[in-house]
Design goal:
The chain is an alpha+beta fold. About 35% of the residues lie in helices and about 25% in strands. It folds into three domains: about 30 residues; about 160 residues, 3-Layer(aba) Sandwich (Glutaredoxin), CATH 3.40.30; about 280 residues, no CATH class. The chain is built from 16 helices and 25 strands. The strands form eight sheets. It has a seven-stranded mixed β-sheet with strand order 8-7-9-10-23-22-19, with helices on one face. A four-stranded mixed β-sheet has the order 2-1-5-6, covered by helices on one side. The protein has a three-stranded antiparallel β-sheet with strand order 11-12-21. The longest helix has about 35 residues. The chain is globular.
């Protein structure tokens, strides 16, 4: 070793070794993830997706240039993630960071902004430092990315579905969703065929502009889609991977129930969005004061009960609610109107970490019912959405009134926590018609060429006790608004993302949706302790490193001097 150190080629050997190590690292990347939540570790479905790429995927992240700290942090996290993507996808994954419109003429820049908006990327107006000493400039930031594969292009909004009111916590949730958003976008681009999803009609389900966003921007955009009148077919065709049932208002006949039951028994998957009680804003506006919510008589309670849930005959109220215009007084003979939370429009959240609803902004409901899970052998139940800690239920006959909270005593009645409103059911379902199929039903089914089954294969189903959750508001000036958008405040809740996740969970077999379950812990400094020990931490972070460097220099010089003294001796 001493001979090598004394050799004239010593430094050349060191440089060659360093070069070889860097060369090996470029082709065999390795990164140790020491975070408790495995923040920098890709999930197995994502790795499988990226390693199976058969053509280059190009990702252009639109986060570059001077930006506020929050956007810089999001850009850095995106860069870290895509570095891991590139390690898994190798030469078939390429990514860049750009500043949209940089160096373009005004006309070209506006044209580019319009193209990005058509892809679904919403701009955010920010103030950014230009150059040192030159102040700030206002510019648009598109917190998203454009992804291309084999001539197909899509875009993802990195902040979509995340609350814009949560500050650092919201940005942390956005970072937790990065892997899912990028992996899911790549998966969709690679699909040559997409699952068939049906929208069931025949029991008063809306087919108006109220479901424009659901049909055009969720179902048609991502799947093969058909509207299916239930009475037009002898059986629900198995080509439909999933069926969406949205706010039926007419009683289901035994024939219709039997078709739905056998669809489930043969592996079909359903999203039920049910209003058990008749409660509509139109009724309240017509009466000007109050009305009684009554049973719609859908007659599907027995079927849902057999599958593992009961949608109750009640209305859910929550103090954590969406805001609507309310009359708070009068001045000069004119009513004074303010936007106030209305407890019949609760803001729902997920509390158990289920990937479909985790890290989402609140989902707003309108006159929802509560759900109870009931015993059903072989069925696992997971609560997807529930109320806050300050909620209550109003049993039927439930009175709907503008002034549902008038006194302090009324507030004390909101003493229930996390009332379930949406439930996922998984397992082998037992038929409602087990041991009671009529000869006529058996004959008709045989004519249709399908056997009658009394138990399903491993299957999934989602029951949501609110028919309005997937509907969108329609205004005279703007037409159909996005799903979950308040027509007055223009705030968009995460209804669209939640429904989209529900459909995807039912039809996708790759497991990519599981990556939404990542949990990024936000480790913030304790402000109180920081203020109390400010001087101490300043010394530790500034003075101590300098002392250590000086100490190291002194020890090194002393050891060097001592070694040369021994050589001379």
């Amino acid at each position: 070793m001493k001979k090598i150190q004394q050799s004239r080629l010593y430094w050349l050997i060191i440089l060659v070794i360093l070069f070889l190590l860097n060369w090996i690292a470029a082709y065999v990347p390795y990164r140790a993830d020491l975070t408790a939540e495995r923040r920098y570790t890709l999930s197995t479905p994502t790795r499988k997706l990226l390693s199976g790429l058969d053509a280059p995927v190009t990702i252009d992240v639109l986060l570059n240039g001077e930006m506020p700290a929050g956007f810089r942090k999001l850009a850095a996290s995106t860069n870290d993630l895509l570095t891991e993507f590139k390690a898994a996808g190798r030469s078939n994954l390429r990514f860049t960071f750009s500043k949209p419109g940089d160096g373009m003429a005004d006309t070209a820049r506006l044209s580019l902004y319009d193209s990005l908006a058509q892809l679904g990327l919403r701009p955010t107006n920010i103030k950014a430092q230009t150059k040192e000493g030159e102040g700030q400039e206002e510019r648009l930031v598109f917190p998203g990315a454009v992804i291309s594969y084999k001539g197909r292009t899509t875009a993802i909004d990195l902040l979509q579905g995340v609350s814009s009111e949560g500050g650092l916590e919201s940005l942390n949730k956005a970072e937790a969703l990065l892997e899912y958003k990028f992996a899911n976008a790549i998966r969709q681009l690679r699909q040559d065929t997409v699952p068939m999803v049906g929208y069931l009609v025949g029991n008063g389900e809306p087919v108006s502009y109220q479901v424009y966003d659901l049909i055009e921007n969720v179902l048609k955009k991502n799947y093969a889609f058909r509207i299916l009148p239930i009475d037009s077919v002898a059986i629900i065709p198995p080509v439909f991977k999933a069926m969406v049932i949205t706010k039926p208002v007419v009683t289901f006949s035994e024939d219709q129930k039997f078709k739905l039951d056998q669809y489930v028994m043969h592996g079909g998957r359903i999203i039920w969005m049910i209003d058990n009680l008749y409660a509509e804003m139109d009724s309240l506006q017509r009466t000007q004061n109050e009305f009684i919510a009554f049973d719609r008589g859908l007659d599907i309670d027995d079927m849902l009960f057999r599958y593992g849930v009961r949608v109750n005959q009640d209305l859910v109220q929550d103090l954590n609610a969406d805001r609507i215009p309310s009359v708070v007084g009068s001045m000069g003979g004119k009513p004074q109107i303010e936007l106030l939370p209305w407890p019949y429009f609760p803001r729902l959240s997920n509390y158990n970490g289920q990937p479909m609803a985790k890290n989402l902004d609140d989902v707003v409901a309108q006159f929802p019912n509560s759900i109870d899970t009931v015993a059903a052998p072989g069925i696992n139940k997971s609560i997807l959405l529930a109320t806050s800690q300050n909620s209550r239920t109003l049993a039927t006959p439930a009175k709907v009134s503008w002034q549902s909270i008038e006194t302090e005593d009324d507030l004390k009645m909101f003493n229930k926590a996390h009332i379930p409103v949406a439930v996922l059911l998984e397992g082998r379902f037992t038929s409602l018609y087990n041991n009671r199929v009529t000869a006529e039903q058996r004959s008709l089914w045989q004519q249709a060429g399908q056997d009658i089954s009394m138990q399903s294969p491993e299957n999934k189903m989602i029951v949501i006790a609110d028919g309005d959750i997937a509907l969108n508001a329609v205004t005279q000036n703007e037409g159909p608004l996005p799903m979950g958008m308040n027509a007055y405040t223009k705030y968009q809740y995460a209804n669209r993302d939640f429904i989209q996740n529900c459909v995807e969970y039912l039809v996708d077999e790759t497991g990519i949706l599981e990556t939404r379950g990542k949990d990024f812990t936000l480790r913030l400094l304790d402000r109180k302790k920081l203020d109390e020990k400010k001087s101490y931490w300043q010394v530790v972070n500034i003075v101590l490193p300098i002392i250590l460097i000086l100490l190291f220099g002194l020890v090194y010089q002393w050891m060097k001097k001592r070694r040369y003294q021994k050589v001379r001796a």
